[in-house]
Amino acid sequence: MTRTGSDYLSSLADGRQVLLDGERVDDVAAHPAFAGAARSVARLYDLEAADSDGTLTYPSPSAGHGVPLGWKTPRTVDDLTARRLAATRLAEASFGLMGRSPDHVAGFFAGFVASPATFSTRDPGFYRNLVAFYEKARDESAYLSYTIIHPTIDRSRPPHEQYDDHLYVAVAAERDDGIVLRGAQMLGTGTVLSDYVFVSCILPLPPGSEDYALSVVVPNNAPGLRIHTRRPYAQGVPSPFDYPLSSRFDETDSLVVFDDVVVPWEHVFICRDIDAVRAQFNDTAAHSLGNTQAQTRFAVKLRLFAGLARRLCDDAGTTVDAKVKQRLGVIAAHAALPEAFLLAAEAGASVDGDGVMRPDPGMLYTAMTLQPRIATEIGTFLRELAGGAVIQLPSSVAAFDDPVAAADLDRFVRWPGASAVERIKLLKLYWDLIGSEFAGRHLQYEMFYAGDPSVVHMRSFGTYPWERALALVDACLDGVPDPTPAVSSVAVAS
After folding, report:
1. 3.90.199.10, 2.40.10.170, 3.40.1550.10, 2.40.110.10: which CATH number matches 5-282?
2. What confidence tier does 490 reach under pLDDT thresholds 50, 70, 90?
3. pTM of full prediction above 0.85
4. 198 C-beta neighbours (distance < 10 Å), count
C-alpha cells in the first residue's frame, strides 16, 4: 500500500530544525503557520493511496504495491501521457498553487536513474547509490524538495572566490562514513514539508569550484541541518474565508543551512565532479521530466484564473457585454497555451540514448520562455475585470457577526447573480490569487521559476529547429532574381 496522508503528517514530527521568528518549530503539521499546507500535501497522498484505476500510481517493480507515477521513467508516449494525467489530477487538488508537490523532484530522479553514464564517471558506486535511493524513495512515496541555487551573496565571483569559505554548500571533508557539507543553499521551496532535500547546483560551475560540485540527498532531520523559512502566509490570517489560498497552499520557501552535516556515502551520487553535475541537468532527461510536471501544474493554475474571471463576470451580469467577452477570450487563450505546448511536446516526443521517451524540448522550453509573460498578463487582465470590487470588501468574515453590518452588506454588496456572502467569498478568493502577499509571491515565483530568464532563453535557442527556419529563408531568397547590371547607352569605341 502506498503512503497515506496520516502517514505523511505523522512523519513531520521527526526532530527537524525549522526556525520561524527566531524559534524552533517542534511539529510542523501542528503549527498554524504550516498546518494548512501540510494537510494539502496529505490530501495528495490520500488520493494516491485510494487510486483504484492506475491513473495516479503504477506497480513498483520491487515493492509489490502501487507507487506514485511521478517516479516512473517514461519509455513510451503512453508513459508520458500517463505521467501528465497524473500530474494534472494532483495539481487540481491544490488548484495548481503548490509548485513543489511530491511529484516534482520525483520527475528529476526518474530522469537521473536512466543515465548510468552520467553518475559513473568517477566511481560506478555513485550510480549504484542513486539507484538504491531512487528505489527506496519510490517505494516509500518519499517527498523530496531541492536546493539547487546558491544564495545571492556575490554573483560576480565564482563559489570558490567568495569572501568566506563555504558560503555556498560545499564538500568540507571526506570521511570513511561519508562527506561533510558546510554552507547554505536556496530556494528550499517545500523543504519545510518534505522528507529529504536534494542538494546540488543547476548552474554551470567553473574550474576551481570542485568542492561545490555535488549531488546528494539529506533527510530533513539530519543533525546540523537548519531550515530558515520566510514568513508563512498562513500565519495570522483571520480565517480561511478571508484567505482561502494563503491558509491552505503556502508551501513556503527556505534558506537551508548545512552546519557540518554528515552525508553517508549511500546518499552521495556525485562528489567534486563539475562535469557530472552539469550533465545531470543538461544531458539526462531529468530537466525535461521535472519541468513537464511544472508546466502541467501551471496549466491547472491558469485554468483557475480563467474560471474565476468567468465566474466574476457571470455573477456581476457583465458577460453579456461584447467587450467583456473579448477580454475573457484573451484570458482563455492565455490559459490554454501551456496545455497546448504540453500536448505538442508529447506528440513530438522521441527516445533518447538512454531509452527515455522525452517530450519535444522545443515545445517545452517555448512554454517555459513564455511562462513569465503569461503569468504577468493574465493577472493584469483579472485586475482590470475586477476593478475596485476586490478592494471594497469587509475586513474579515467577522463582519457578518454584527446584525447591522450584515444587513448593510446584504443590501449594498451583492450582484445580480450572487448574494453578499457569495460575492464576498468569491472576491476574497479572487484577491488571494491576484493581490495578497501570497499572490505577490506566486507572481514572483512564475516570473523566475526557471531562475534567470536568460537560462531558459538559451535552452529555447538551443532546441529551436533553426535549420528549417534558415532553409525557408534560403528558399524564399532563391525565388528573388538578382539585379541585372545596367546596359550602358554609350557605345564602346572599337
Report:
1. 2.40.110.10
2. low
3. yes
4. 23
